[in-house]
Amino acid sequence: MDSFVQCHYxxxxxTNPLQLICRHSFCTDCLTKEIENDKIxxxxxxxxxxxxxxxxxxxxxxxxxxxxxxxxxxxYSTK
Length: 79
Description:
Distance between the termini: 16 Å
Number of helices: 3
Structural class: alpha+beta
CATH class: Alpha Beta
Largest sheet: 3 strands, antiparallel
Number of domains: 1
CATH architecture: 2-Layer Sandwich
Number of strands: 5
Strand order of the largest sheet: 2-1-5
CATH topology: Herpes Virus-1
């Protein structure tokens, strides 16, 4: 389950996760740092995404990741 709650850029639990069109999620801050020439390349599938005007308007908030992070913490705290 860790791979579902981990950002592939910073390798930490997702913070304010955004989901790209390819459905991979990353921390909002990490995605913002990775914008080059108004584009982001997904490190998981190498899909190139347009990020017009250095914004993340095409990315949507990932609602599943925060739930999985909480579930993951619960599972490890009960061991």
